[in-house]
Structure formats: structure tokens, C-alpha cells
């Protein structure tokens, strides 16, 4: 049976940018919204969760791509979850050892990376069908897109909800913080604003591309 030519082609810059722009996990595919809303009340928490998820994504998809011809189809999902859980355990113990305060702030959402739809979906739809290098590059893009999305939400919520950025005061002692932004409703509000902005930017980019093709 002939192989898909896409699987044989080397990774390109488009492969890397796919997860950041065209298939952003949060802003386009609406995946991983639970951690995106739950732990993004500060920029540091959001960045830490994004980097932790990226590490798990890179490690698990690369290993799955390496073993894709050895994993039986009948148990592939269970095998993927075991692989993902292994890397989540590494992240869990690492964060616990580095910063107990950050570990407590992220809470159970570190362990819940195991069931993150972005990671499991990337394993099933991409890593199990593509070579290691292509999978690795694509996973970097998806991880960067996920981290960018969480950081964008967390930065806005921290600035408006605490008046700080990475704990550094921005507006002085007279600033009246908007407490709603550090609460769950504020997470939904900030996410909706970013979704509108991201959709507008993509629409403008598509229009420019159409004008370029027409000329």
C-alpha cells in the first residue's frame, strides 16, 4: 500500500506555524479550555501550565510516532494514555520539587494534563500517522500555540485583576483592581475577547491573501 506523500515530505515552517496560527488549540480548535480558564488568573501560572503541557505533548507524541508501527490498533488509545501519563508524572514531580507554591497554584490541573484533548488528539490524529521529525516540529508549534493562548489570557487577567505583571505592580497603590477578572467569569470574558480578536486577525489575513491571489 503506497504511503501518503504528506508523511514522506520533510517538515517546513508551515508545519511549525500550524499550531500557532491555523490550528491554534485554544483560539481555533477550542481544546484544553479547562486549564486555559482555571489556572490562567496570573501570567506565571498560565505560562507554567503552557510549558508543562508542551513538554508532555513533545515527549508523548515523539514516543508515539517512534512506536506507531509497534502499538496494536486495538489498544492504541490505552497505550497513548499510558505514555502521556508517564510524561505527566515527570512534570508533576519536577514542578513539585522546583516550587511548592506554583505546584499548589496549579493544583490538580497538572495531573489532568493526561486527559487534555489537545494532547490525546494530536497523538491519535498526527503522531500515529507521521514520522518523528515531522511530529516533533508540529508538536512544538501546537505547544507554542497553547502556551501563547494561556499566557495571553493570564496576562490580561493578572493586569486587570491584580494590577501586576509577573507579580510586579504596574499602576501604583491607587489602582482599583477588577476582582471579576481573577474569578471564573473573568476567564470566560477574557477568552471571548481573545477569540473575537483572533478571528478578526485571521479574517484580515485571509482577505489579504485573496487580494494577493487576485492581483
Based on secondary structure, the structural category is: mainly alpha
In N-to-C order, the SSE pattern is HHHHHHHHEEH
Stretches with pLDDT under 50, minimum 5 residues? none
Global outline: flat
- Count of discrete domains: 1
Described by strand count, sense and barrel closure, the largest sheet is: 2 strands, antiparallel
Number of helical segments? 9
Euclidean distance between termini CA atoms: 42 Å
Mean pLDDT: 89
Fraction of residues in β-strands: under 5%
User: What is the C-alpha radius of gyration, as a whole number of Å?
Assistant: 19 Å
Number of strands: 2
Order of the strands making up the biggest sheet: 1-2
Portion of residues in helices? 55-70%
Helix and strand topology:
Blueprint: H1 5-8, H2 13-22, H3 33-38, H4 43-66, H5 76-98, H6 100-106, H7 117-127, H8 132-161, E1 164-165, E2 168-169, H9 184-214
Antiparallel strand pairs: 1-2
Task: Walk me through this protein's architecture.
The protein has one domain (13-214). It is an all-alpha fold. It has nine helices and two strands.
Identify the notable features of this structure and list them briefly.
215 residues; mainly alpha; two-stranded antiparallel ribbon; 9 helices; 2 strands; 68% helix
The gist of it:
With 215 residues, the protein is mostly helical. It is 68% helix and 2% strand.
Amino acid at each position: 500500500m503506497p504511503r501518503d506523500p504528506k508523511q514522506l515530505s520533510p517538515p517546513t515552517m508551515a508545519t511549525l506555524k500550524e499550531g500557532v496560527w491555523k490550528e491554534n488549540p485554544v483560539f481555533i480548535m477550542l481544546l484544553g479550555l479547562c486549564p486555559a480558564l482555571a489556572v490562567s488568573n496570573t501570567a506565571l501560572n498560565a505560562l507554567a501550565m503552557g510549558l508543562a503541557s508542551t513538554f508532555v505533548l513533545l515527549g508523548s507524541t515523539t514516543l508515539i510516532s517512534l512506536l506507531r508501527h509497534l502499538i496494536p490498533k486495538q489498544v492504541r488509545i490505552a497505550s497513548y494514555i499510558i505514555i502521556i501519563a508517564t510524561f505527566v508524572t515527570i512534570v508533576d514531580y519536577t514542578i513539585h520539587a522546583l516550587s511548592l507554591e506554583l505546584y499548589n497554584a496549579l493544583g490538580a490541573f497538572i495531573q489532568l494534563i493526561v486527559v487534555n484533548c489537545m494532547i490525546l488528539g494530536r497523538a491519535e490524529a498526527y503522531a500515529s500517522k507521521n514520522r518523528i521529525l515531522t511530529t516533533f516540529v508540529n508538536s512544538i508549534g501546537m505547544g507554542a500555540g497553547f502556551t501563547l493562548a494561556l499566557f495571553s489570557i493570564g496576562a490580561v487577567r493578572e493586569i486587570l485583576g491584580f494590577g501586576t505583571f509577573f507579580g510586579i505592580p504596574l499602576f501604583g497603590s491607587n489602582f482599583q483592581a477588577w476582582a471579576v477578572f481573577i474569578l471564573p467569569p473573568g476567564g470566560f470574558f477574557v477568552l471571548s475577547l481573545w477569540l473575537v480578536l483572533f478571528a478578526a486577525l485571521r479574517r484580515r489575513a485571509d482577505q489579504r491573501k485573496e487580494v494577493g491571489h487576485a492581483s
